[in-house]
Amino acid sequence: MSKTVTGPDGKCRCAWCDAAPEFNAYHDTEWGFPVIDDQRLFEKICLEGFQSGLSWRTILAKRENFRAAFADFDFRKLAKFDEKDVERLLQDAGIIRHRGKIEASINNAKRACEMVEREGSLAAYFWRFEPDPSEIAIPQTKSTSPTSVALSKDLKKRGWKFVGPTTVFAFMQAMGLINDHAEGCFLRPKIDEVRKSLVRPG
Question: pTM of the full predicted structure?
Fold first, then answer.
């Protein structure tokens, strides 16, 4: 059984909120709420790629800097970035200066444009991979799933980079493709209700 922690407001939250004070707001207003906006979906999968090998606290602290540096994750604009932009970004101390991850985000922006042409939207594509709830029987006990493995494989086949199964699973958790809030977390039933009323794209 996954654990919860009781915050200063008396609410039970997922235990990972205890790792940093800024996590409470992120947990309460973003994590796990279903997202069908293409730009937000693209931003999140890029930031999950940047997180690889690092903590989410590091990425969250730099998120506004990332948005400023990466054209607010408008993938149509980011797809036009060139080698000069890569070199500029490598000098930006406000972000994670990792050439491979920077180049992957630009590459993925181009692949996102292609995906919209083929699929209609990023949301229509990603939500096709919404798993059956039974796949995650006990919340927060897995770092990958059969669906995250399948989605990762398909993205790589389409030319996306830094989209391994663990990265993709974290993306699915955060974007509400699954409800992975802990049993006992005050938000778990709310997320269930939001997911029930969500009109799936595509």
Answer: 0.96
Q: Which string of b and e fits 94-119 if b means at least 16 CB within 10 Å? A: ebbebeebbbbbbbbbbbbeebbeee
* Active centre residues (catalytic): 26, 48, 56
Domains identified in the chain, total number = 1
The 10 Å Cβ neighbour count of residue 7 is 16
DSSP 48-103: HHHHTTS-HHHHHHHHHHHHHHTGGG-HHHHTT--HHHHHHHHT-TTS---HHHHH
Grouping H, G, I as helix, E, B as strand and the rest as coil, residue 143 is coil
Burial bucket for residue 70 (CB in 10 Å: 0-12, 13-18, 19+): buried
Angstrom distances, CA of residue 13 to CA of 9, 122, 156: 10, 30, 34
Parent domain of 143 = 4-197
Residue matched to tokens 């948005």: 67
Domain-located, residue 202: no
pLDDT digits 0-9 by tens, 70-105: 999 999 999 999 999 999 999 999 999 999 999 999
**Does residue 174 sit within a domain?**
yes
- Does residue 172 lie in a domain region? yes
Tell me the CATH number at 80: 1.10.340.30
Can you tell me the distance from the alpha carbon of 57 to that of 60, in angstroms, rounded to the nearest whole number? 5
